[in-house]
Amino acid sequence: MPELPEVETVRRGLLPTMEGQVIAKTDVNRPDLRWAFPPRMAERLSNVRVNALRRRSKYLLADLSSGETLLMHLGMSGRILISGDPLGQFHHDHPAPEKHDHVVFHMASGARVTFNDPRRFGAMDLIPTDCLDQHKLLAELGPEPLGNAFDAAYLADRLKARKTPVKSALLDQKLVAGLGNIYVCEALYRAGIAPTRRSDRIARYRAEALVSHIRDVLSEAIEAGGSSLRDYRTTDGELGYFQHNFAVYDREDAPCQTPDCPGHIRRVVQSGRSSFYCPTCQR
Ligand SMILES: [Zn+2]
Questions:
Q1: Are 127 and 57 in contact (CB under 8 A)?
Q2: Distance between CA atoms of 21 and 131, rounded to whole angstroms?
Q3: Residue 226: strand pairing partners
Q4: Annotated catalytic, 43?
Q5: Measured between alpha carbons, how far is 72 from 126 in angstroms, rounded to an integer?
Q6: First vs last C-alpha separation in the chain
Q7: pLDDT per residue as tens digits for the range 10-62
Q8: What DSSP string runs through the chain?
Q9: How many angstroms is it from 173 CA to the middle of ligand 1?
Q10: Which of 11, 44, 55, 58 is catalytic?
Q11: Are strands 266-270 and 273-277 parallel, antiparallel or unpaired?
């Protein structure tokens, strides 16, 4: 499942093709993904300029010249492919249409942006741009983890008020938006905090330090995604998926990477999700 850095990488990859560019025509090949598409979506996505392409949490937001914003979510298996782009750095010919190409944007430039999603957990919606903050998917979201509102005092105060394990608190999208399982595991490892530790029992200085670890793991992953975009010529035009090196995630029983730590990575299940951590250096 794409996490925040993957979505940000997709956004950056789409910028040259979509931002400031006109969508001449959109093909909508089915009535729904996870939810029904809005009425007349193909028509409302034709002959409009994309004024800005933004991200909020794991949602891509395209502000359109029509006064509406297109919200896109990749779900579990959504992929975006660019082809025929005369403006981008590398050229990919239009591929043959595939079965799961559900929405295809034909840019006035000649480029094509294809949204392919075999499992159909993705979503799209059209919302008046000036009502965006009240949309059901966005209204309850907490601050962006890379934004200024997510700072040491904020996180320390919020954790102090919770009795749930810190892992669950950080996955709560009302506390911070867009953090997923992988990056929570990695940030807690760097902070030396066990995922099972009760939020209100974390010393304040440790809760405060956790903010910079969260920012670092996300920023480094976005940087890795940027590198994958620069390798774009070797791929087929698909955006957003790249190789990571994780310290704890999916490394059960492997030796801990902390210098001189004799521990091995343990996996525990919390709220149905696997947590990976070193029981020796995470307390
Ligand atoms: Zn360790």
A1: no
A2: 23
A3: none
A4: no
A5: 9
A6: 28
A7: 999 899 999 999 999 999 999 999 999 999 999 999 999 999 999 999 999 99
A8: ---HHHHHHHHHHHHHHHTT-EEEEEEE-SSBSSSBPPTTHHHHTSSEEEEEEEEETTEEEEEETTSEEEEEE-TTT-EEEEES-SSSSS--PPPPP-TTEEEEEEETTS-EEEEE-SS---EEEEEEGGGGGGSTTTTT----TTSTTS-HHHHHHHHHT--SBHHHHHH-TTTSSS--HHHHHHHHHHHT--TTSBGGGS-HHHHHHHHHHHHHHHHHHHHHHHHHHHTGGGS-SB-S------SSTT-TTSBP-STT---B-EEEEETTEEEEE-TTT--
A9: 28
A10: 58
A11: antiparallel
Tokens of 106: 């034909």
The CA distance from 211 to 47, in Å, is 43
Q: State pTM to two decimals.
A: 0.92
| Rounded Cα–Cα distance for residues 50 and 66 (Å) | 9
Q: pLDDT digits over 159-171, tens only? A: 999 999 999 999 9
Q: Locate tokens 């025929």: which residue? A: 84
Shortest CA distance to 127 belongs to which of 58, 77, 59, 173?
A: 59
Distance from residue 151's CA to the centre of ligand 1 (Å): 26
Place of tokens 């700072």: 151
φ and ψ at 142, to 5 degrees?
A: -75, -170
Residues in the chain: 283
Whether 186 sits among the annotated catalytic residues: the reply is: no
